[in-house]
């Protein structure tokens, strides 16, 4: 390569740098060649989402974990001075637990899900629920491709009045109109108005922003895992190899030589070579920096999941002083907030319907979610020790008598 050609190539390769410097790069100004491109989210079909859920453990965790925790902390209805009816209602409402869990799971997977309240009130399904409810049952969970909001341009996409369901009766396709009073709707990931219209009136699947970082992480782990099986490999150097390959007789000789080398390697865990014409080298892969790369990809995947690290991979604090109490308390508060946000209005409406069925029309009831935060046995023992020390101080100082303390503990 001549000196002129070399200079030309250097200048050409440096064009980007020169233009950036002319635009002020390095002086606190902008780089005219740099830009951020936000790709449009991919629209996944129902089959693709189902396949991802069935084949990738991380997708199942994203869709299943929070609904399972939300129903683990199921609540109860409280009726003052009517314990018998309260117990009866809670027994009926507890049957909704698995339906709510399944509804939210499918909503996380597909962007939305629906349960029909099968109410016997003397009205058609297209009419609001009557005050007089004689019986109440619940359908299975339907996906967005089975029941969808009726959108004619004037409907509120966030709170539609009617839903539609297609069914074939005696070979004839029929569309049923269902009033929103009779629908329990579970929501996926919040999205914008236009995206909801494209999704037939539903939100996004939780897997839409998650699948790309998830697949990057799993692909990286797969490559590293596959390379471990051959982290060392042998290079057998043969003199004049390509020249020998041109001759048929030499090819046969070479094939026999490689067979002997392979047999000696298998039987003796070593290789016998010709000192003058052959050489053997063992080459090892370089894994420097791989751990950091995998950890970074894993952190990106966890961040995209919407779950915390303990929730996603069950990685809890370690060490003598790391009880994880603050993390457990934060998780319980987060689950409680999700219950109120996702299910608060739904369960209250179901409570009203159950009360109507039992002819209870007073408005003095309330629904309480169960607190998921529980003290460990060690934490309870420490709490009792603190209380005992406080009681001893009160008794010794004459603030309270043992009888008064006992009375307070019994309350």
Characteristic key phrases:
3-stranded antiparallel sheet, 15 helices, flat, alpha+beta, 411 residues
Description:
The chain has 411 residues and is of the alpha+beta class. Among the domains are: 1-35, no CATH class; 46-206, no CATH class; 375-411. Helices cover 49% and strands 15% of the residues. The strands form 4 sheets. Strands 3-2-7 form a 3-stranded antiparallel sheet. Helix 3 (46-55) crosses helix 4 (57-72), helix 4 (57-72) packs antiparallel against helix 6 (97-110) and helix 8 (211-228) packs antiparallel against helix 11.
Short structural summary:
By secondary structure, this protein is α+β, with helices and mostly antiparallel strands. The protein has 15 helices and 10 strands.
Number of helices: 15
Helix content: 40-55%
Strand tally is: 10
Give the neighbour order of strands across the main sheet.
3-2-7
State the distance separating the first and last CA atoms: 95 Å
Task: Tell the overall outline.
Answer: flat
Helix-strand category: alpha+beta
Amount of beta strand: 5-15%
Tell me about the largest β-sheet: 3 strands, antiparallel
Cα radius of gyration in angstroms:
34 Å
Overall mean confidence score, pLDDT = 81
Q: Outline the low-pLDDT stretches.
A: 1-15, 318-322
User: From N to C, what is the helix and strand string?
Assistant: HHHHEHHEEEEEEHHEHHEHHHEHH
């Amino acid at each position: 390569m001549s000196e002129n050609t070399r200079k030309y190539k250097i200048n050409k390769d440096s064009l980007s740098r020169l233009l950036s410097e002319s635009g002020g790069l390095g002086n606190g100004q902008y780089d005219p060649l740099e830009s951020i491109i936000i790709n449009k989210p991919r629209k996944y079909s129902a089959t693709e989402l189902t396949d991802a859920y069935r084949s990738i453990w991380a997708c199942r965790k994203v869709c299943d974990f929070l609904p399972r925790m939300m129903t683990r902390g199921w609540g109860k209805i409280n009726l003052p001075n009517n314990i018998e009816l309260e117990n009866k209602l809670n027994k009926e409402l507890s049957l909704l637990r698995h339906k709510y869990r399944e509804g939210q799971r499918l909503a996380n997977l597909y962007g939305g899900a629906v349960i029909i309240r099968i109410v016997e009130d003397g009205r058609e399904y297209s009419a609001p629920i009557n005050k007089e409810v004689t019986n109440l049952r619940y359908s299975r969970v339907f996906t967005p491709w089975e029941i969808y909001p009726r959108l004619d341009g004037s409907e509120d996409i966030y709170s539609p009045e009617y839903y539609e369901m297609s069914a074939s009766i005696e070979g004839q396709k029929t569309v049923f109109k269902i009033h929103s009073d009779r629908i329990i709707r579970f929501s996926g990931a919040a999205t914008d108005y236009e995206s909801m219209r494209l999704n037939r009136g539903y939100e996004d699947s939780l897997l839409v922003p998650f699948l790309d970082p998830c697949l990057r992480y799993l692909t990286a782990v797969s490559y590293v895992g596959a390379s471990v099986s051959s982290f060392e490999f042998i290079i057998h150097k043969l003199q004049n190899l390509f020249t020998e390959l041109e001759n048929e007789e030499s090819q046969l000789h070479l094939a026999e030589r490689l067979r002997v080398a392979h047999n000696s390697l298998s039987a003796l865990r070593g290789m016998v070579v010709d000192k003058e014409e052959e050489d053997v080298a063992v080459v090892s892969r370089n894994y420097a920096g791989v751990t950091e790369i995998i950890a970074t990809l894993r952190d990106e995947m966890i961040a995209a999941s919407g779950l915390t690290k303990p929730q996603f991979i069950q990685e809890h604090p370690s060490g003598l002083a790391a009880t994880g109490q603050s993390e457990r308390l934060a998780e319980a508060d987060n689950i409680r907030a999700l219950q109120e946000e996702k299910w608060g209005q739904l369960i209250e409406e179901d409570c009203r319907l159950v009360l109507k069925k039992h002819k209870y029309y007073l408005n003095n009831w309330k629904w309480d979610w169960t607190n998921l935060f529980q003290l460990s046995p060690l934490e309870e023992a420490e709490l009792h020790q603190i209380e005992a020390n406080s009681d001893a101080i009160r008794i010794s100082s004459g603030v309270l008598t043992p009888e008064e303390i006992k009375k307070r503990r019994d309350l």
